[in-house]
Amino acid sequence: MAPTPILRHSAPRLLALVAVHGCFSVAFAQGAPRNDDGTFRNNYPHAETSLADFLTWQSHRAALVEPPGGWKVPVVSTDLAALRAPSANPSVTWIGHASILLRLAGKNVLIDPIFSTRASPVPFAGPQRVVPAPIEIADLPPIDVVMVSHNHYDHLDESTVRQLAASPLGSPRFLVPLGLKAWFNDLGIARVEEFDWWQTAREGDLAITFVPVQHWSRRTLLDRNRTLWGGWAIEGEGLRVIHLGDTGYSRDFRDIGERLGPFDLALIPMGAYAPRWFMESKHLDPAEAIQVRADLRARHAIGIHWGTYAMADDPPDEPPKLLAREREARGLTRDEFDVMAIGETRSLTR
Questions:
Q1: What is the pTM (predicted TM-score) of this model?
Q2: Which of 12, 43, 82, 256 is most exposed, with minimal Cβ within 10 Å?
Q3: Superfamily of the domain at 78-348
Q4: DSSP string, 217-266
Q5: Do 189 and 156 meet the contact criterion of CB atoms below 8 Å apart?
Q6: What does DSSP assign to residue 136?
Q7: Beta carbons within 8 Å of 167's beta carbon, 6+ residues apart
Q8: Handedness of CA 44, 26, 90, 96 (dihedral sign)
Q9: For the chain, which residues make up each domain, given as ranges?
Q10: Count of CB atoms within 10 A of residue 251's CB?
């Protein structure tokens, strides 16, 4: 199966940058704000939820019941030959959830990879895959860079990270938010660099910038917001791509659009949004995802963070249906905001 073209226009250069030892801060950067105890916080005020709110949600939850015939999540087997062919560069492959393989400027970039059956600290409980991973780690092309948006288990998976670092070709370069390097070092992974918001690095001909989004971090009961979270803006070969990790809606997207946009492709999370009263500050729904595309000034958008794990009360196959309805109401085409099948590769055409 040949990759499907989705981008047809080039963009002017993204940044006027001066590199210092390969990693530097953009002149306007202030970095992420912190609380008095050193924990990180979001840029803009928003509604907060408490442990009591979480317990209220959990006590009223009804189990999602898979319909006869299963969830209608589109899945294809990844075309391994096409993925490794020079003609597939540049391209984007959706591995599922927020896991993306981006081939750009001669580099293979993996973002928020998770290949495990469960998104959980334990293998016997927690959200389980609705569909299997469409490709094995061993079948990936050689990975140059792995980018992590934050430390939640559905975005940072220990088993996946260990396997990637143990590649026979050598460990890829891991780019992570502030505070996460120690976690990788504890696993014996040394090739790790931490980033504050608006910091930029280079990987070959790629310019990579860590950008603010509205979210939070926690991996244990005692480390809430002690590591940072964010998205990744990537520019190379005259193309600008942004991956937003996991986020609620905020003014941050207009800031990103004004400073780094316009983008050729935005990978925007749009799942795990229900119940809205609890999830609104944490996760986008499809209507908000459409607004984020506009804020970023993105020509094309792909919805991610759905269809792979049942993380909340929205059915795994619901987000594309709501996206189609909202897209029609706003006069957008599928070319402007679409979804991919898990395992699908699409070429990025200048």
A1: 0.91
A2: 12
A3: Ribonuclease Z/Hydroxyacylglutathione hydrolase-like (3.60.15.10)
A4: --SSTT-TTSS---EEEEEETTEEEEE--S-B--THHHHHHHHH--EEEE
A5: no
A6: -
A7: 142, 143
A8: negative
A9: 78-348
A10: 13
